Amino acid sequence: MKTAFVLGGGGRWGAVEVGMLSALAEAGITPDLILGTSIGALNGSVIADTPGLEGVRRLTDLWESIAGADLFRGGFGRIRNITMMRPAIHDTSEMRALVSGVHGDRRFEDLTVPFQCVAASIERAAEHWFTEGPLVDALLASAAIPALFPPVRIGDEHFYDGGLVDSVPLSRALQLGAEVVYVLQVGRIEAPLRPPQRLYEAALISFEIARRHRFTTLLDNLPDGVEVHVLPSGNPVAFDDRRQLKWRDTSDTAAMIEGAYEASTEYLKGQ
I need a labelling partner for 158 at 20 to 30 A (CA). Which of 127, 141, 150, 174 fits? Predict the structure, then answer.
């Protein structure tokens, strides 16, 4: 049976996917296909390049370096971008250096496990799946969070974060014939929604519905013979979780990895 790993987006919360991948590797579960969105694309690309526990060790080292480097620190450049009304708070230079340090000039075709990632085309207002060519630009496009980063130009198109069009790309896995799918998500879909009680909550809940509806609709209408496992994050993120305001704070990275590892290990034991 064809097995796919699907890794959703979620910024710094993507650390939980490292714990999930560790639990999968220890359980001897290997993918035939890996699909990723945003930070899930970066995580997935490392495992596609180096499957198993060795890849998990690479990812753990990467996340430790991110936590120690304060990747999204402030400074004059950030202030200048805000005061000059530029379209993004950060440029892509630090993120490009990070991703280039991981993959160099590698291409999709060089990876051990078939891998694809998604981004949102601005000109076509549509999802775009990267399946070949240089990895770095594709990963940057998939993780170009609007307002935080500028769009990434590839060819004649400009791309924003893949989470805008497919935050947890289960549908792509099914289109490509996956029969067993392990969904690695950052904790948002584990937190239930409720009607808004304050004005600002209306926008937050609307955003969450937009993020989740494609995944939840598909999950409720799976084709016969398809087995989907949504791994627990050990870290549910509610729509009004104040921790989301601390999107630059990576001090809890190790705790998120460990929590997801323990929760996913327990889940896989029951399968």
Answer: 174
Q: Would you state the pLDDT for residue 79?
A: 38
Query: Which residues, at least 6 apart from 34, have a Cβ–Cβ distance to it below 8 Å?
Result: 4, 5, 7, 44, 45, 47, 48, 113, 114, 115, 116
Cα–Cα dist 228/62, whole Å: 28
- Strands 115-121, 126-130: pairing kind: antiparallel
Amino acid at 48: A
Q: Is the dihedral of CA 162, 168, 171, 175 positive or negative?
A: positive
Grouping H, G, I as helix, E, B as strand and the rest as coil, residue 27 is: coil
Contact 50, 112 (CB under 8 A): yes
The residue to which tokens 């989740």 are assigned: 212
The three-point CA angle 253-259-265 to 5° equals: 135
pLDDT digits (tens, 9 = 90+) for 138-157: 999 999 999 889 999 999 99
Rg of the chain taking only CA atoms, in angstroms: 18
Residues of the chain with pLDDT under 50: 72, 74-85
- Give the DSSP letter of residue 113: S
Helix (H, G, I), strand (E, B) or coil at 228: strand
118, containing H or E segment: strand 115-121
Cα four-point dihedral sign 219, 53, 60, 118? negative
The pLDDT assigned to 147 comes to: 87
pLDDT at 111: 98
Residue whose entry in the numeric block shows the structure tokens 């998990």: 56
